[in-house]
């Protein structure tokens, strides 16, 4: 039986760490859809394509071969994971992720991956759009302050210069853009299980999710 697990939620809620662990447990390929939108932001920036240049961005995407290896995004043969997780890319990515033509192309790529492999996929529209029929759907959230302090710690550990206040502001701005865009905004699917992680550690969340999956299999 094919397994698809959808994990949605706002920026910094811990989705990717959780999805990786759930993937290891059930031998699922982890598809980080945020990384794919970030790759579009990175390449658009390198090519000086502002978000209004929709046609050029779409033809750029048709030359982007993306797949995942060991949870990292490989773009045209290059591991770009480090380059797409900088504050600079975080601050521009929502403007590209809100373009309907960009979304329809990336959704198609994500659906192709889920048709080929057993997947755990995280993002904003997985349970509502990409994997609408997934048997296992989760919506993971946490307060903006908790999410900002997690991101701040992670960037400090990577020696990336940043300020907590700026990260909190970026998270609040991104929540707004992601939740209010016209196409496929961030929202909980009606049939998703909601988990507030503000006062839970990662193992606690992974246990809740794996218990649901174990019971459902
Ligand atoms: O999860 P993340 O922070 O890496 O996501 C980067 C951006 O991409 C964020 O602004 C939301 C957007 N995104 C989206 O619109 N749909 C997805 N399925 C995944 C991410």
TrEMBL record:
<keyword id="KW-0808">Transferase</keyword>
<dbReference type="InterPro" id="IPR027417">
    <property type="entry name" value="P-loop_NTPase"/>
</dbReference>
<keyword id="KW-0963">Cytoplasm</keyword>
<keyword id="KW-0547">Nucleotide-binding</keyword>
<keyword id="KW-0418">Kinase</keyword>
<dbReference type="GO" id="GO:0005524">
    <property type="term" value="F:ATP binding"/>
</dbReference>
<dbReference type="GO" id="GO:0006220">
    <property type="term" value="P:pyrimidine nucleotide metabolic process"/>
</dbReference>
<feature type="binding site">
    <location>
        <begin position="9"/>
        <end position="17"/>
    </location>
    <ligand>
        <name>ATP</name>
    </ligand>
</feature>
<protein>
    <recommendedName>
        <fullName>Cytidylate kinase</fullName>
        <ecNumber>2.7.4.25</ecNumber>
    </recommendedName>
</protein>
<dbReference type="Pfam" id="PF02224">
    <property type="entry name" value="Cytidylate_kin"/>
</dbReference>
<dbReference type="InterPro" id="IPR003136">
    <property type="entry name" value="Cytidylate_kin"/>
</dbReference>
<dbReference type="GO" id="GO:0005829">
    <property type="term" value="C:cytosol"/>
</dbReference>
<comment type="similarity">
    <text>Belongs to the cytidylate kinase family. Type 1 subfamily.</text>
</comment>
<dbReference type="InterPro" id="IPR011994">
    <property type="entry name" value="Cytidylate_kinase_dom"/>
</dbReference>
<keyword id="KW-0067">ATP-binding</keyword>
<dbReference type="GO" id="GO:0015949">
    <property type="term" value="P:nucleobase-containing small molecule interconversion"/>
</dbReference>
<feature type="domain" description="Cytidylate kinase">
    <location>
        <begin position="5"/>
        <end position="214"/>
    </location>
</feature>
<dbReference type="GO" id="GO:0036431">
    <property type="term" value="F:dCMP kinase activity"/>
</dbReference>
């Amino acid at each position: 039986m094919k397994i698809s697990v959808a994990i949605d939620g706002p920026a910094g809620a811990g989705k990717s760490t959780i999805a990786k662990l759930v993937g290891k447990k059930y031998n699922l390929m982890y598809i980080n859809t945020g990384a794919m939108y970030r790759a579009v932001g990175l390449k658009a920036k390198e090519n000086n394509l502002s978000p209004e240049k929709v046609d050029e961005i779409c033809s750029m995407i048709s030359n982007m071969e993306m797949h995942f290896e060991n949870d990292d995004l490989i773009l045209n043969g290059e591991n770009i994971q480090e380059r797409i997780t900088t504050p600079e890319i975080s601050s521009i990515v929502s403007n590209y992720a809100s373009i309907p033509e960009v979304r329809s192309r990336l959704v198609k790529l994500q659906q192709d991956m889920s048709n080929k492999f057993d997947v755990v996929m995280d993002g904003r529209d997985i349970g509502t759009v990409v994997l609408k029929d997934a048997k296992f759907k989760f919506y993971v959230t946490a307060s903006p302050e908790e999410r900002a302090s997690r991101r701040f710690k992670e960037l400090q550990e990577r020696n990336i210069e940043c300020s907590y206040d700026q990260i909190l502001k970026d998270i609040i701005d991104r929540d707004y853009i992601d939740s209010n865009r016209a196409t496929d905004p961030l929202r909980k699917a009606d049939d998703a299980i909601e988990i507030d992680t503000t006062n839970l550690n990662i193992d606690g969340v992974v246990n809740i999710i794996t218990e649901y999956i174990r019971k459902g299999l």
